[in-house]
Each structure stands twice: as structure tokens, then as C-alpha cells.
Amino acid sequence: MNADPKDMKVRDVAHPMLPALTVEDISRQRAVVTLRRILSSKVRSQNHRHFNQTGAVEFERQHGRRPESLADIEQSLFNVPTYRMWSAANRAVQEMLWVSVGEPIFRDQQRINAEAARLCEAADKRGSLSINRAYDPSPEVADIDIHLQPGGYALELTHDDVTAGALYETGGNVFSFSVGGRRDDSKAAAINRLLSEIAPDFQPGRILDIGCSAGAASAAYAWRYPEADVHAIDIGAGMLRYAHARAEALGVAVHFHQMDASRLEFPDNHFDLIVSHNVLHEMGDETRKRMIVESLRVLRPGGFLVYQDVNVRSITDPIIKADIVWEKHFNGERFWLTYSEAELTSEMLAAGFPFTHVSEHEIPAVAGALRWYVIVARKPDTAGAAA
User: Fold this and answer.
1) Quick one: pLDDT at residue 184?
2) Cα 128 to Cα 124, 131, 179, distances in angstroms
3) What's the CA gap between 87 and 326, in Å, rounded?
């Protein structure tokens, strides 16, 4: 039984690779959304009180001192029964999320793959797709089920599979409390707004989206700058097939490439704008540093490099910071703490960007109460000169 569209959360992005949902599918996804909200607002919000009243007291009884380090605080929290309950429930609801989106995807998989193949092989397609069959996806990403996504970002079940992208997009919708997709993509829209403020006359001719995943931001940039030549890279063939088909279904031209962010296969001085969205926290220190160096190399003089990510870098509260460690241990976010402690401005300077051309920002999302971390760097017009 197919659901009545009036029962579904309104989306302004629709395309044929989205799975058909039954009433039961929608009910299950709404239940996951409700559970996530309860765990976040009613349980997680009490961590401070439980730490002070129970966790720290029990830690001091066991060790004869107050908890000091991040590891001490983490141990103190796990001394609290309510925190252990939240931890187990939070892990369980994340797994429930993937069941709620995975079942309709796998049930509809044959049709989804066929629609993607039709779009990718169309004679009148606008963009392109380059899959490197000899490419070995980076194990620090490919070997991890990031935020527990089944099979991870490099999942590829068959030669024409798009399951990774379907999971990413539909899972992201439920994870973001059923906000749904936007034509301009909320993260890309936030960056476009920032660029319009700091460089109102900037009109990029070539754009690169690093770590594009299912291609929402890539398509949004192609929609926002219809005259631009938009390229996007990621490590997973299945993810890229989905992203390419999605862009074609939405009527925008994006050129997708299977490629490592630390080894960009583009000429020097090639792009006017290089962006990444929520990529910094998915890679280790050395990969990130090489990505910055490579981004500077392929960025044209006067061009902008803009990396956006989750706003956890300004957190100083040790209780909240312990939640970052939880994501590392229990939610497949291996580099969450690595990203939060990275000296990104120093890394930009070490790569070759001048100090006067690098700035960090905390910007509001275009919808909701979220705020994003953004670091912006501009390549000088000439070597050593100000832009």
C-alpha cells in the first residue's frame, strides 16, 4: 500500500531514486524522529546534572580525586545509570534509523538502480560520471560505517549499484528530524549566503565539491550558478552513480569523479571555488593536510576555498565534549575528536595561504537553530600579493 502524499513531510526535491514509502514506512521513520528528539531534548540535556550529582561523586569515591581529563569525565558519565541508558538507547535508535530507511530501499532496489542507470546513460544528459575501476577507496573512510550507515560510503553491491547514495540521502532526511531535501541544499545555501556577504561580486566559473556524497550540495551549486562548470568528487562508485543520476533528474549539470581528496587529478589553478561540506570530520590529520595543499594547488589566483563542517570546534564544556568521544566510540565517527582539536588555520598557513587571506566563521544554518563552522581561504591574485 502506497502512502498518501499528504501524509508525508513536504520536500522540495523529488526524483525517481527516492524509495516508494508505504504508510508503515512513514510511521516507522516518524517514530525514529520522535525517539531522537526525546533522547536529545529530554535525556541528553540532563547529562550535566547527572555528572555533578552522581558521576563525579562516584569517580571521586573510586579514585580519591575529582575527574579531570576527558577520559575521567567519560568514565564518570558511565557511572551514571541514566547516561548508560541514554547511550544504549541512542545507539539503538541510530540502528533503527537505518532499518527504517533500508527496508524500503532494498525492497525497491531493482527499480531504483534501473532509474539511476537510465539517467546516467541518457543520450541528452547534462553532466558526466567518471568511475575508476582501479581506484582503491581510502580505507580510513571506506572501512568505517560512518554514523552506522550500512556498508559505509564505499558500499557497492553490483556494477550498477546506487544503494550507498540512496541510504545517505534518505537516512540524512530522517537523521535531520525529517526536514527533507532542499533544492538549494541547506549547507550550500549557507555558504552561498556567506560568499555573498564577503565577496558580493564573486561569480565562480569552475566549482569543485570535495566529498560530495549523494550530491545534494553539488547539484545546489549547479542550480545557483547555472553558467559554472561544476565538478564533484567522492570515494564510492555507488555513491557517485546515485549523485550523478540525482543531478540529471533535477536537470542540472555536474561532473562527478571517483577520486581521493588528498590526490586531486585536476590541473593547477583550475577552480574559482572549492567547497566541502561535513568532510573535515571524516578524515585523519595527514589526509586533511594533504587535501588543503591540493586544494591550494588547483585553486586559481583570487579563488575561494570554503570548508564547512559541524560546529563542535568551539566547545569547551568538558561534559559536552565527552559527547564527541561518544560519537567516536559508538557512532562510527572515528575522526570526530581529531577534527574538533585540529589547528585548521595553522594548517592553511602551512599549506601556503597568507594569514590575511584566512578566516574562520560560525554561521547560522538557513533553517532551524543549527550553526555551522566554516573556514575560508582565498588564494592571492599573484604570489605573495593580497587579493
Assistant:
1) 79
2) 11, 10, 29
3) 8
Cα separation of 225 and 189, whole Å?
12
3-state secondary structure of 333: coil
pLDDT at 385: 42
List Cα–Cα distances, 150 to 26, 171, 173, in angstroms. Answer: 20, 10, 16
**pLDDT at position 296:** 98
Q: Where does the chain show beta strands of DSSP type E?
A: 128-130, 206-210, 229-234, 255-258, 271-277, 299-310, 358-364, 371-378
Residues listed for the chain: 387
Q: Please tell me the predicted confidence (pLDDT) of residue 347.
A: 98
> In 3D, which of 375, 315, 373 has the Cα closest to residue 347?
375
pTM of the complete model: 0.93
Collapsed DSSP state (helix, strand, coil) of residue 13: coil
Mean pLDDT score of the chain: 92
The mean pLDDT value for 298-309 works out to: 98
The alpha-helical segments, DSSP class H, found in 206-251 are 216-224, 237-249
Q: Residue 162 pairs with which residues in a beta bridge?
A: none
Instruction: Determine contact, residues 308/211, Cβ cutoff 8 Å.
Output: no
Contact 153, 233 (CB under 8 A): no
CB atoms within 10 A of CB 136: 10
Residue 119 corresponds to which amino acid?
L
State which H helix or E strand residue 209 sits in: strand 206-210
- The arithmetic mean of pLDDT across residues 53-60, rounded, is 95
Mean pLDDT along residues 315-342: 92
